[in-house]
């Protein structure tokens, strides 16, 4: 029997949304209620490295498996299974068209995945994780798929993952097709278009988030009236304004939309019944610190944004590093518990842990 082990590796970066994805119109296919836009962070700082392998010698009884940071991880979830199924179907079509190809689609898959940042840092890692997962298998299967096509598959693993198939400034267009065939990501601008962009991550808590994004979204869609206003008017406006700000490299406009959109997203969470609070007192102190930094500079040099947890991501431009990062240490340095911490290879990071 053929004992060849077929193997492929890839890395995928973390992305942080400046116009947030929040709400599923189809939970099964991970179709969103609104478009979203993110900035992909540097791979030198935050990325997932994944190796996919398959072999006829892998025991069929063991099935597909995933080792995440050295720990066996459950792959039986519907989202992970959808990714496996989509990728196998595409490989099987290639094998049907060319019988000389090895039948990789019939072999068990083994995935080994490592983050280059502490998992305990409480940073959303599912985006990089599913993007690397999908591309590693696509490479292994030698699928002739573009990043946008792979984003269609990664989207089914974790919505935000579809944006990590591209670098730079990335939009996920919500689409309108019921089967999700037009709900995918595209690149608004390369990182080189605005190379001065930086992100500072304030680790407020490394604890796992209290309400998962899936259940938070479900509750928001079901119970928030404000959410209807957000998806009908606020997000479409923010998408347009954000694309324009990026094209024109207008940091003040980029920052205002980023902060307004984060506020809008967290307002819809507070508007659910019962309310969901992702930010805490330290998160709010970070917002006040950004406002103080901008006031002291006499112009907008920093923008905050928060995902489904208390950690802050602060966007700023390289030339304003001293005003932003320096002042952050100054303002928050006195606060009990703040300490400067440089996570392995990460940009300057403040931690309250
Ligand atoms: O991809 P998910 O299901 O983990 O949802 C991500 C939701 C936010 O991070 C809050 C917003 C976003 O667009 O990334």
Automatic annotation (TrEMBL):
<dbReference type="InterPro" id="IPR020568">
    <property type="entry name" value="Ribosomal_Su5_D2-typ_SF"/>
</dbReference>
<dbReference type="GO" id="GO:0004163">
    <property type="term" value="F:diphosphomevalonate decarboxylase activity"/>
</dbReference>
<comment type="pathway">
    <text>Isoprenoid biosynthesis; isopentenyl diphosphate biosynthesis via mevalonate pathway; isopentenyl diphosphate from (R)-mevalonate: step 3/3.</text>
</comment>
<dbReference type="GO" id="GO:0005829">
    <property type="term" value="C:cytosol"/>
</dbReference>
<dbReference type="InterPro" id="IPR036554">
    <property type="entry name" value="GHMP_kinase_C_sf"/>
</dbReference>
<dbReference type="InterPro" id="IPR005935">
    <property type="entry name" value="Mev_decarb"/>
</dbReference>
<keyword id="KW-0753">Steroid metabolism</keyword>
<dbReference type="InterPro" id="IPR041431">
    <property type="entry name" value="Mvd1_C"/>
</dbReference>
<keyword id="KW-0067">ATP-binding</keyword>
<keyword id="KW-1207">Sterol metabolism</keyword>
<keyword id="KW-0752">Steroid biosynthesis</keyword>
<dbReference type="Pfam" id="PF22700">
    <property type="entry name" value="MVD-like_N"/>
</dbReference>
<dbReference type="InterPro" id="IPR014721">
    <property type="entry name" value="Ribsml_uS5_D2-typ_fold_subgr"/>
</dbReference>
<dbReference type="InterPro" id="IPR053859">
    <property type="entry name" value="MVD-like_N"/>
</dbReference>
<dbReference type="GO" id="GO:0005524">
    <property type="term" value="F:ATP binding"/>
</dbReference>
<dbReference type="InterPro" id="IPR029765">
    <property type="entry name" value="Mev_diP_decarb"/>
</dbReference>
<feature type="domain" description="Mvd1 C-terminal">
    <location>
        <begin position="199"/>
        <end position="353"/>
    </location>
</feature>
<comment type="similarity">
    <text>Belongs to the diphosphomevalonate decarboxylase family.</text>
</comment>
<keyword id="KW-0418">Kinase</keyword>
<keyword id="KW-0756">Sterol biosynthesis</keyword>
<dbReference type="Pfam" id="PF18376">
    <property type="entry name" value="MDD_C"/>
</dbReference>
<keyword id="KW-0456">Lyase</keyword>
<dbReference type="GO" id="GO:0019287">
    <property type="term" value="P:isopentenyl diphosphate biosynthetic process, mevalonate pathway"/>
</dbReference>
<dbReference type="GO" id="GO:0016126">
    <property type="term" value="P:sterol biosynthetic process"/>
</dbReference>
<protein>
    <recommendedName>
        <fullName>Diphosphomevalonate decarboxylase</fullName>
        <ecNumber>4.1.1.33</ecNumber>
    </recommendedName>
</protein>
<keyword id="KW-0808">Transferase</keyword>
<feature type="domain" description="Diphosphomevalonate decarboxylase-like N-terminal">
    <location>
        <begin position="12"/>
        <end position="185"/>
    </location>
</feature>
<dbReference type="GO" id="GO:0016301">
    <property type="term" value="F:kinase activity"/>
</dbReference>
<keyword id="KW-0547">Nucleotide-binding</keyword>
<keyword id="KW-0444">Lipid biosynthesis</keyword>
<keyword id="KW-0443">Lipid metabolism</keyword>
